[in-house]
Structures are given as structure tokens and as C-alpha cells.
Amino acid sequence: MNGIKIVTIGGGSSYTPELIEGFIKRYDELPVNEIWLVDIEAGKEKLEIVGDLAKRMVKEANVPINIHLTLDRKEALKNADFVTTQFRVGQLEARAKDERIPLEYGVIGQETNGPGGLFKGLRTIPVILDIVKDMEEQCPNAWLINFTNPAGMVTEAVLRHSNWKKVIGLCNVPIGMKMMVANFLEVEPHRVEIDFAGLNHMVFGLHIYVDGKETTSDVLKRMTETNSTGTMENIVDLGWEPSFIEALGVLPCPYHRYYFKTDEMLDNEKENAVSSGTRAEVVKKLEDELFELYKDPTLSIKPPQLEKRGGAYYSEAACSLIDSIYNDRRDIQPVNTINRGAIQSIPYESAVEISCVITKEGPKPIIMDELPVAVQGLVSQIKSFERIAADSAVSGDYNKALLAMTINPLVPSDTIAKKILNEMLEAHKDYLPNFFEKVQ
Amino acid sequence: MNGIKIVTIGGGSSYTPELIEGFIKRYDELPVNEIWLVDIEAGKEKLEIVGDLAKRMVKEANVPINIHLTLDRKEALKNADFVTTQFRVGQLEARAKDERIPLEYGVIGQETNGPGGLFKGLRTIPVILDIVKDMEEQCPNAWLINFTNPAGMVTEAVLRHSNWKKVIGLCNVPIGMKMMVANFLEVEPHRVEIDFAGLNHMVFGLHIYVDGKETTSDVLKRMTETNSTGTMENIVDLGWEPSFIEALGVLPCPYHRYYFKTDEMLDNEKENAVSSGTRAEVVKKLEDELFELYKDPTLSIKPPQLEKRGGAYYSEAACSLIDSIYNDRRDIQPVNTINRGAIQSIPYESAVEISCVITKEGPKPIIMDELPVAVQGLVSQIKSFERIAADSAVSGDYNKALLAMTINPLVPSDTIAKKILNEMLEAHKDYLPNFFEKVQ
Amino acid sequence: MNGIKIVTIGGGSSYTPELIEGFIKRYDELPVNEIWLVDIEAGKEKLEIVGDLAKRMVKEANVPINIHLTLDRKEALKNADFVTTQFRVGQLEARAKDERIPLEYGVIGQETNGPGGLFKGLRTIPVILDIVKDMEEQCPNAWLINFTNPAGMVTEAVLRHSNWKKVIGLCNVPIGMKMMVANFLEVEPHRVEIDFAGLNHMVFGLHIYVDGKETTSDVLKRMTETNSTGTMENIVDLGWEPSFIEALGVLPCPYHRYYFKTDEMLDNEKENAVSSGTRAEVVKKLEDELFELYKDPTLSIKPPQLEKRGGAYYSEAACSLIDSIYNDRRDIQPVNTINRGAIQSIPYESAVEISCVITKEGPKPIIMDELPVAVQGLVSQIKSFERIAADSAVSGDYNKALLAMTINPLVPSDTIAKKILNEMLEAHKDYLPNFFEKVQ
Amino acid sequence: MNGIKIVTIGGGSSYTPELIEGFIKRYDELPVNEIWLVDIEAGKEKLEIVGDLAKRMVKEANVPINIHLTLDRKEALKNADFVTTQFRVGQLEARAKDERIPLEYGVIGQETNGPGGLFKGLRTIPVILDIVKDMEEQCPNAWLINFTNPAGMVTEAVLRHSNWKKVIGLCNVPIGMKMMVANFLEVEPHRVEIDFAGLNHMVFGLHIYVDGKETTSDVLKRMTETNSTGTMENIVDLGWEPSFIEALGVLPCPYHRYYFKTDEMLDNEKENAVSSGTRAEVVKKLEDELFELYKDPTLSIKPPQLEKRGGAYYSEAACSLIDSIYNDRRDIQPVNTINRGAIQSIPYESAVEISCVITKEGPKPIIMDELPVAVQGLVSQIKSFERIAADSAVSGDYNKALLAMTINPLVPSDTIAKKILNEMLEAHKDYLPNFFEKVQ
């Protein structure tokens, strides 16, 4: 390769400066010479704001990366080496509905593995499958690196509903868990290793090592007892019952609170919806503020306020992954990829989130211990949800969508599922062509 | 064998006349010559009432079956051919607590796969493992046929925590589903066949055949549309959303309402708790009435009122099973037995409820289709619950009990789980020696 | 159904009178009213001889079965209920080559799981796939019951290379093993039950029961020590080392001698080739004699000489199977069908030979113990051979054919494999259109 | 750790100077400060010769490694960090018998996966299990790194017949294959990566990459066509049929010639046995010459002649492995370890030879493609052989030994197996206490 070509779909996202910063930092080892930021008509203004900032950043850093802004996806994809996707169909307004509508029925929306995630999947999957079709034509050797949530469901859909195999789902949750442990232990992050296994936003740290020595049970004990299991910017920290975590024996991710502290999380979301707004609404404000900052023609670095946005370490995760593929580094990173027997309780051909060796040929899952018996059921349930949701997104089948909604562990009954489903279908009508070309 | 020896542990149960009637009817093909009814000191009075009725029944029927009543389990077990267990540790009072305590916290008790089932398991498993030890000594070639709930968890415990392999868990739910379909279709039951697979009280009818012709989707459609999916005496019939069942594609069991109609079931239980009492309390009254009837020295048949008790077809299931083992009939019956790969999404060595060929050497599961993707997760979750609950019952480990309670799909958080657990441990103290010999 | 329609492809086979006799005997329970015997132009004379005998047989028996003779396969298949296949592409001359050519290179031909079987498969599979295409059109609800060897490979090919699912492979080896055990024990056959598992001509009796009581190790010990493991008409009985069978712990089938007594079997085949001729040549003589008998217009029953032909119990196996499907008997019979996890060491979707419950919907494998570790490897090796051979038959790929030949356990090297392959390809040229339309 | 303690059992081996050289080279990153060379009384003289050379080598290299020579295994093991085993029970005389006796019966001896390997296993396994017992006492945190053949069977035995989990089997075959490919392509070895999977001496290169780009089919084609598949010092290069390798699609290891070129290998071994002697006899001469060299008090480096001995890259493999564990390098190396689902067609708990990430906690297999269908059978057969051989070594069960011998793919019949077994048991009597304390 003579310089790497990156295409970022949803390039007008507020996250883009993170990515740009990451490529700048790594320029010597990862010689990116073109970054194409792609967006749709409705996102044109943001694309230009972010794109201009990106151009100022590379200029300031004095690296020979060319930034291109375009609304023409096909042209952008031509001969791409890596395509990253971080778009949001229906934007934050749609996400706000994903969160608000279920709440009306006393149900957490949850934009990835909950009813909200179902609709985010229904809107996103047809688009990602279109992107994949364009890639088959324009850049058949590229890697697709997807950040768009629900990242597990989207990866599952690409793996099972297209012929595209070079897809990797990426999430900042595992890296966040590692940072959290490092902070708690007051050691540098590189001294901590965690064996990750599970699904996206449903991942567990099976073993925690410090300087290569296993310290899992000790760390778990101290973290829960001091109520320091930590969380992320976007998830309230309600702690854990120490006895529960001790018996569990593995480190849960922040999103597990939705399933193991459902009532408390629901109460919290209800309160927030009234006081500060749902997460989408909070993010909307943050983003508006960020874009105000981005407009400043004197700004030529990533503004520190971006880190509050909840996407901490995204750039780190993405650039590390691309770097390891490009340079065949064979280091270990947690990503979403095809299971192939690595986790015995999940179907062979499904997407899992797991520590992998990252090679030029992509990620290869590492065999680790089985998931604890205690969580195999919940993990399977979310996988069942993801699989049926993906099938429904592709077929536009109303009954399957109801089935996915009903089996979601956050949804308390088929009847409530139906009410939520019907209201959400109506609300998201414009973004669900597979459903509204068909008879319900 | 010269005449078969049956031992029934919990012989003072109100169900016993059903069993006696079953053995009387089948005497020609299944020559039982001894039935030992065993109970504990606290059950002595009931044992005598039921035992006297049993004696009058065999006399009236003029079959040479000897009925023995005893409190000495070991003596009774000597050289037994079949041991049936239908005891209830702590009796209906304990069950009432299993139902009432979770309700205080807004949680369904559910005496098999819910928090109530956890405690019924914790009380029952140490006793069944003791029985198995006695059987190893007294009747090493006998079959243990367990009716005591939670039948799945109890079978799991015997399979994984003892060396006894000749154990079968039995339930009247599958036979009830078959009868329900036959009634709906207005055909004789023997013309209906259903392929059953899943777990106890979490079993599905994968295929429904009438006269050997598959009619699953047609029957499902008509049953849900006419709100005739039916239920059992003890579970309120709240119907199903037709679209949900259509997408599911298999026949759920009545207990699935707890998981797919949780909120509505909870509301219903709360109402009942106030109006008619919990199920245990209703049953208590029914039983008191039954025992009044049983006392009548002129009664020498099973009184028809027994069928309201909820145990319809129990005798049918038990006697059919014993008959098929004794006579090596190789017919097909749904029972709880070791999985051995029959259901791929459940561990190889765990108990499943599945259609089996019943032979002299016991049940052999029949390979059928996989469980639908939509339910693999929930079924796994209940299996995870059963496994950890069984482990906790054996070890008396508080943390594991909390883990089991927390992962139960009816329980909304670790903190609520802990409150329920603590209150129930205290309430059932006298029946939990494994927990109260140890430090919590 | 108003009377059953049977179509027998390869109807001019010397086995046909067996089948006819079977249907006559069962007429009351299995009301066959049409049997269509189909053959090709080259087999017309035999078809007429056998067909006339068949007509005399039904007349003599006074049952209203209509016998039709035809060379028009499509017409015959119209609305068939059961299609049995017992044809031989290239007739006994081809089989003689299957046996003779490998012998020239010091290799056993073995018409099913050896080099001979590879070629029999290459000739047969394209034809069976054509038949299946005709069935899709003419009789989409019929069952295909295949006797044509190599029955395992042929079933594998239909399962994996067509959309036809209603296929069952049938063999008389398991029933022969059961008869052998019954004879040895001097009990009536119905008192013996054997759990069969493995592949076609590579099947094991995992457990032997007499009157429902397991007697496996005792029977094995006595049979091997008295050198009475028995065999079939077409396989020389070389006995077994008692210590070997004792450690094996299961009953091998007669064909296992090819793999566990390779050198002795080879010597024997070499001798026979010189003295009495190969098996095909012996059979040729027997068949000529049989057809002479069949021509006798006074003959109106199956002549007893047919039993020497090696196909003992074929009629029994076929008619029992059809009867159990038609009458939904749910009894247990060993057949070749899709594995679906019944034998863990064989791929889920591959054909296995295993005891099944026979229902109106077809065979359902019964879960039994795993194959002994000692034979899992050999069984897998034959399955690998069958799979690659089937793939090669469909694609006409020379390299795959060489691969299949080389991995066969009877073939000692890639170079010898190549020589045998090349000579056999040339010899069977006329029956291998997939290979000779293509460039080698 | 303050300096690493290495214990080498079989320290008097001619390979030892390789190891010493490896530790000297890596001293800066792998600070070994003690190497204990342990041998038995019969090996005392060699131990001293080799030990003295080792001492001269460290002195010459000026590294602070202390060399200890001892016959007291327990003392040596005290607080060891790594224990390497490279002993040979019965020495080369025993190996010569492993090779000669089968040849008398027309069977290849093959010291790892053949009849010779069975006996090497029977002699070695009781000793390794004794070593493990000593390690439990003396150095419970050490890693056992076994080079002693048959390395797969020995690893299997430790995994399944002891409680010791920190065991790794090591072989120079994969590294040899990598070197061979690099030589053929004329590139530096570090530019070649191969995904290895299979069993010891039965391993395949599933994918070959040069500079991170897959070139498997191209390399295979060119290698076979130019007859350059290469082999090892101790295995004759008979080439491969190009069509066979093309259809196989993966790189076989040199030992595969025993199974896919059996007749030719047998002829070659017979010739050698007459002309130059069996491999053991050749090695004996080489070793005698080496020990003559080692005695030279002026020699203080590893003599170049050692490389002819067949153990090329052993030191490289061992020192790299120890280095990666000690330094938690997380690089990829092929080793023998527990499968845990990495290769689906091999039992979960069995030993496999597979590319692993090497961490401080040991090797973690990487998920790769399944083994090609064509070889799953043969690989399973060798695994069956290894498992039964290991069981027999532990129990001293004659019948199991016969079973292992009979199912070996090199052995043509149960009767020949019995003859070879009986003669070998007699010949190795002194080293088979498990067999000769018992009744045969």
C-alpha cells in the first residue's frame, strides 16, 4: 500500500476529531494519506464544521493526510483500505424516541440491547447492508470497522445476511473497563490485562491480570466492597451487591446494570427523563456545545470537552485496531467477530465480543474459559434477541419484530411489547422502509 | 420379578389415591403386589387417612396389592423396584411463604422456576440426596421417579450431585398440553402427538401431529386467535398475542406466561393474594376438604373432586412410565432426564424435559429439531438458575443462593434479590440445615 | 391414502421377489395397491422375468396388488407414496471391476467403504440426484428409501447435495447382527434388542439386551471365545481376537473385518479372485441361476435359493420401515438418516446409521451412549471419505476423487491411490459423465 | 523471581548443549541463574560429560548461570520455575526395539504415533506421572515443558491422568515446517507465519502467510510440483502427489508420509534396517560421536554436528516458549495444550498441537479454521490411539494395549497387533512395571 485510505461514514459525527487525533499520533507507523468523511444531505452542515476542524488539525500537526468531505458514498469508497461507520439513522431525535417511548410503558429503552436497541437496529441494518453492497463493488479488499450501535446486532447482521466477511464491530466498553481497573489499582494501564468474553454491551472480564499475575477475585472483592466497580459517562453507577459479584466471579460491564439492577435503573431513567432529559437529550446538548466549539477557526486540536461525550477511548480502540491489522502486530484486543467455537454456549457462526489476536488477516479469537454458568443464560437471551432482531430488520417481518421485543429481558410481556412496538414503528416510520413497503 | 414393589415417599399426600387408582387399573399388565406409603412423623395422621382409603380401594377393586404404611423409610425401601417421591418439605405452609415473601417485594414467587422454586429446591434437594443414599443401600436396582417440585432442579441435583443414575423427573404439564390440544381439536387424545423439548415447566411443543400429520402452525393460529391456548388449574389463562405465537412457531406451556406476561401475572397474583389467597392457600383449603372426604369409611374409590387439585394426569403419567419400563414398551413419553446432546443449546450432562423412548433401561431422548432461537436464551437462563440453585442447595453457600436468586428472570435486581433471599432464609430456617450449620 | 403406491427403481433386480413377498404378507396392515417396477432399457429382459414372477406371486396370494412394469421413470413416479431404489449402474460387470482393479495393486476393493465403494458412489450419485429431481416434480410427498450401495454415501449425497429431505438409507447389516445374536443365544429374535450406532457398513451394537436386560459384555465374551461373532453370506468369518473385542466393549459388524483384519481379508480376496472369482463374479452366477428359476411359469412364490444371495432380511427391513411410516408405529429400527447431534463425534448434518423411532414423519434418532473412543477415529475417517467422495461425484473433480481414494483406510498411499484411480476412471468411463465432460 | 531456576530431566541427553546455548543467548531478557541437569544412575557418565561441557559453555559466554548435576530428582525440583523433560526410558536400545519388532511383522514402528510410539508411551507415562507427583510437592508453581516423545500422548496423559494443569508439550516439527517454507521461498523466517493445527506429529499448516499475505495454495502448488515439500533429518522425503495436496489444501507435516505413503515408507524402513540400521541405530552412532566431541575439554560451544541429530530448533522452541511465559510476551507459538473447543472435531479436554498466544498464564489456543474434512478422520484416529494408549499406560491393562495397537492406522489387523504386542511387552518388560505387576 502507498499510504492508507480511510473512509468514515457518518463523518460529520462529533466523534470524528478523536479519530483524526488518533491517526495523527500514529502517523509514523500507520501512514494514512487520505481520510474521506462521508455524510448524508441532512448532515452536510455538521460534516463541514467537523471537516474543517479536521483539516486544521492535520495542518497544525504537519502530517501529509488529505481530508476529503463528500456526500457521495460510492465515490468515497473507491479503493478504500479501511471503512469506519459511525452514522446514526434518524439522528439523536430518533434515539430520544428509542428512549422515551418504552419509558411511557414503564420499560427501559436502552439503545443497544433493549427495545431502543431493537429500533436502532431496525433503522441501521438496512443501511449497513447497503454500504456493504457498495464496498463489494468499490473496495472488495477493505475492512469494515463498525462503531454504530447496536454494534453486536449490526455485526451479526453483516455476518449472517451478507457475503461480506471482513467486518469487525468495535466498542469502547472493554477498554473502559481496563482503564477503570487500572485507575482503581493505581497502576499504568499497560500493566493490566483482562480476558474479555461475551457480547457487545454484555461482555465480562473473565480474568484480570496485573503484571501477568492473576488477581481477579482480589480485585473484584475490593472493587465491590468499596463500591468502585465503576461505570461509564452514560450509565449511572449504582454499585453491586458484593456477595453477588463474589459468587459471579467475573467483572461485569457497566451495561449489566440494566439486567441485574433493572428496577433501580428504570427509576433512575424515569427521574432523568423528567429532570435532565433522557440520555439522547443530554447528548444533544453536549453535541450542540461541541459543534459550537468546533466552529471556532482557531481551534486546531481535539477539544478536551469531547471526552465527556461518552465516547472515551473510541479513537484509541479504532486506531489500535487499524494499526494492528496494517502492521500485522498480533497483539490482543477485544472486538466483535465471528465466534467459531470460542464461546461454546453461543452459536458457532454468531458475533461475539472477545479478546482476539489482531493480525493482517483480521481478528482470531483466543480460547479462554467458558462464561460462568450464571451468565450463560442471559448472554444467550441477548444473542437470541440480536439474531431475531437482525432477521426482522432484513425481512421487515412484523411478527419477528414483536418476537424480538417480547423476548428482550427488559420487556415484561407480549402485550406491552406489542404496544411499544406499534408506537415505535409509527414514530420511526420514515426510517423503516422494509416495514412500510409491506403490510403489517 | 415376582410382583412389583412400589415405595411412595410422601405417601400421605392427597395425590396418593390417584396413584393407587392407576395401579389398580393396570394390574393385569403391571402386577404390583406391594405399595409402601412412607411419610414423616408430622405427616402421620394424613398418612393414615390416605392409607386407609388406599386399602379400601384395593379391596373394592379386588386386586392382590398389599398396602403398607410406615414412617421407617429405610425399611420401606428394601428391595423396592420403583420409588416415587411426592413429598413436600415444610408442607403447604412453606409453599405459602415461597409465594408471599417475594410478592411483598413486587416479585412473583413461582414455586418451580422462580424465587419460590429456589427455596423449594433448597429445602428439597438435601432430602432427595438422602433418599438416594438410602436407595444405594436398600434397593440399588430401583428406579427413582420424582414428582416433587421443582422437578427439573431436583433431577439436575441428583444427576450432578450423586452417583445415582436411575432417576426420572415427572411432570403433568406435557400430558396436560396434549389433552388441551385434543380438547381444542375435539379429537381423542391418542390421535394427537406432540414433540416436547425444553426444561421442566419450561417445555415447548415443537411439533403437533394429528393422526401422524403435522398441523403445528394451523393449530397454533387457531388456538391463539380464539384465545384457547389453555392453561392448567393453577395458572390463570391470560391468552397470548397471536403475532407473538405465530413468530414463535411452537406451543408454549402454561408456565411460560410467567416469563412472557410477567407484569400481568404479577398483578393477578397480587389480587389473588388479597382476595382468595395465594395458590398454596387455595390448595390448603382444597386439601383439607379432600382429607375430609378421604376419612369417609364408605369411600373406596378416588373421589372426583381430586381433579380440581391441579394434579390432573399425574397418575396417568407415573403409571404409564412405570408400565413402560417394566414391560419394556418402547413407547414415547416426555420426562426429565439427562440431555446427552439431544438439545444442543443445553449442557450435555444437564436435565432436560423431552420426549423419550421408554425402555427397560430407562428413557432415551429422541433427537428433534433445535429449540427455536427465540427461546434458547430463556431456556438457558432457567437452566443456569437450576444449576446454581442445585449447587447452592448442596453446599449451603449463601453467595451462590444470592447468585441464583439474582439471575432468575423474575427477579429485577441484585438488591431486591438480597432482601428476598434474607427474608426467606430466615422464614425457612428450620428446613435449611446446610445453610444454618454454616456461617452466612 | 386410498391404497399405497410403491415405485421400485431397479425393479428387474433379483431381490424384487423378496419385496413382493413382504408386501403380500403385510397386506392387511399395509394396503399396497400398486407396485411399479422401473428399469432401464438394458435391464428390460430381467424386468420382464421378475415382473412376471411378481404378477404370479400376487395372484397366487390372492391380494389386490397391481404390478406395473415400465421403462418410463417419470410416469411411474407420478403420485408415488414410497420409492425404493435398488439399481446398479453398470451392473455386476462394473462391480467386478470395482473389486478386481484395486486387487491388482494389492488393495481390497470393498464395494461400499473401499476404493470400489468410491466408484460405485461416483456412478450412483448422479443417478440418485436425477431421481430426486423427478420426485420433486412427480411425487413431492413421497419417501425415498434407498438400498443401493454405498447406502451411507448415497444418503449423505442426497442430504447435502439436494433439497430432498425425505430420504432414508436402508441396510440389512443391523438386522443380520440381531439375528446372529439371537441364533447364538438360541432365543427368538424379538427378545433381542440392540442399540445401533455408526455409519453404514461401519455400525456397532453399543448395547445388547435380552428380554430388556443388558447382556453386552457377557454376550461379547462368549461369542468371541467360541469364535461365533458371525458374519454375512458375503464376508468371510475370520473371527476376532477376544482381548481386542473385550476392550472394545461393543459388537462390531461383519464389515469391520476389512479395517481390523485388513491383511487377512486381502489374502482371502486374492485367493478367491483366483479360485471362485470375486464376490461380483460369484453373485453373477447366483443371479443367473435365480433368473433361470424365475422364468419357470409354475413358480409363484419367492424361491428359497434367493436367501443365499446375501440380501437376507432386506425385504424385512424395507417392509417394516414402510409399514411403520405408513402406520405411524413409533417402533425402533436402525436406518441411515441425518445425525442432528445423536452421535457427537460425527458432523451434525451428516448421514449416520442409528436406531431411530420410526414415525409418520420419518425416523428420529435416539440418543444413546457415545461411540467408544477406540472407534471414533475410524468412523470419522470413513465419514470423511464418504463426504469427499460425494462431493467429488457431484462436481466431477479429479483431485477430490484422488483425495477420497487416498484417505480411505484401505489404501496405503497417494501414489497407489492415483494408479488405482486412473485405471478405474478409464474402466468406468461410460458411467461417469461428470468426469468425462470435464478436463481431468 | 530472582533469577530463574530451570530443571532438565534427562539432562545427560545429547540435546542439552542446544538448551544451554539458548539460555546463554537470551540471558539479558531471560535471567536464568540455575540449571539443574538431572539423570538416573545409568546415565551418570553421560550426564557428567554433558554437564562439564555445559559448564565450559557458560564460562566461555561469561554469564552467571550455575550448572548443577545430580541424580536426586526431588532435590533438583525444589522451587524450580521451569522443568523440561527430555528423558528416554530404556534409552536408544529400547527405541531400536520399538522400530525393529514391528518391522519383523511388516509394520512400521514409528516412535510416536505408531506401534513404537505406543511402547514409548507405555514406558514414559508412568515416569512422567511420577515427576508430576514430585513437582506437586517441590515446585507447585512451575511449568512442565515436555519434549519427550510421544509428546502428544504424554501431554494427554498428564492432562487426563493427573491434577497438574501447567503442562506444555513441545515439538520441533512446526518450527521446522516454517523454516522449510522460508527456505523454499527464499525469505527470512520471521516473514513467514503459519497457522498450525492438529496433533503432535500430525499437525497441519492451515494457512501460510508471507508478510501477512495469505499464499497457501500458491506455495503448496509450487512446493509439490517441484517436489520440495521438504522433510526432516529423520524422515525420508518421498514427495507427494500434487493433485492430492492440491485437493487437501493444507501443508502436511513430514510425519504424514507414514499415513499417506505407508507402503513406500515401509519399504524404505525395511531397506534401511538392512543397510544403515533403523533410525535408533543411526542415532546411536551419531550420539556416540557427539559424546566423543563433548568430552574434548577445549570444546566450549555447541558443536555444529549436533544439528544433524534431528533435533534442529528444539532449543529455539523451548527457549522461546520459556521466554514468552516469563516475559508475558503474548506472541504466537505452536505447542501441545488442552484443546478447549479450538478444534471442534477433537474432544474438548484432549491435547492438541496448535498455534497459541503465549502468556504468563500459559498458552491460549487461537481459533482458526476447522481441520479439512479430509483429515478429520485420520486426526481423530490418532487421538483415539493416544487416549487409549495413555489409559493403558496408567492401568497396565493388556486388553487396552491391544486395542490401542489394533486401532493404530499403521497396524493391519488385530491378530498381527497381538503378535507385535506380545513380543514388545516381553522385550520391554523391565520398563513396564504397571504391566508386569499384574496378570496379563
Write up this protein:
The structure is a homotetramer of 440-residue chains. Chain A has 440 residues and is of the alpha/beta class. Chain A has one domain (1-169, 253-321, 345-352, 372-433): NAD(P)-binding Rossmann-like Domain (Rossmann fold, 3-Layer(aba) Sandwich). Chain A contains 17 helices and twelve strands. In chain A, the strands form two sheets. Chain A has a six-stranded parallel beta sheet with strand order 3-2-1-4-5-6, with helices on both faces. In chain A, strand 7 and strand 8 form a beta hairpin. In chain A, helix 4 (91-104) runs antiparallel to helix 16 (414-427) and helix 5 (115-138) packs across helix 6. The longest helix of chain A is centred in the first third of the chain and has 24 residues, at 115-138. Chain A is globular. The mean pLDDT of chain A is 93. At the A-B interface, helix 9, helix 11, helix 14, helix 15 and helix 16 of A face helix 9, helix 11, helix 14, helix 15 and helix 16 of B. Chains A, B, C, D: Its EC number is 3.2.1.86.
Topology:
4 copies of one chain form a homotetramer.
Chain A: E1 4-9, H1 16-25, E2 32-38, H2 44-61, E3 66-70, H3 73-77, E4 82-85, H4 91-104, H5 115-138, E5 143-146, H6 151-161, E6 167-169, H7 173-185, E7 192-199, E8 202-210, E9 213-214, H8 216-225, H9 242-248, H10 257-260, H11 262-274, H12 279-295, H13 314-326, E10 331-338, E11 351-359, E12 362-365, H14 373-395, H15 398-407, H16 414-427, H17 433-436
Parallel strand pairs in A: 1-2, 1-4, 2-3, 4-5, 5-6
Antiparallel strand pairs in A: 7-8, 7-11, 8-9, 10-11, 11-12
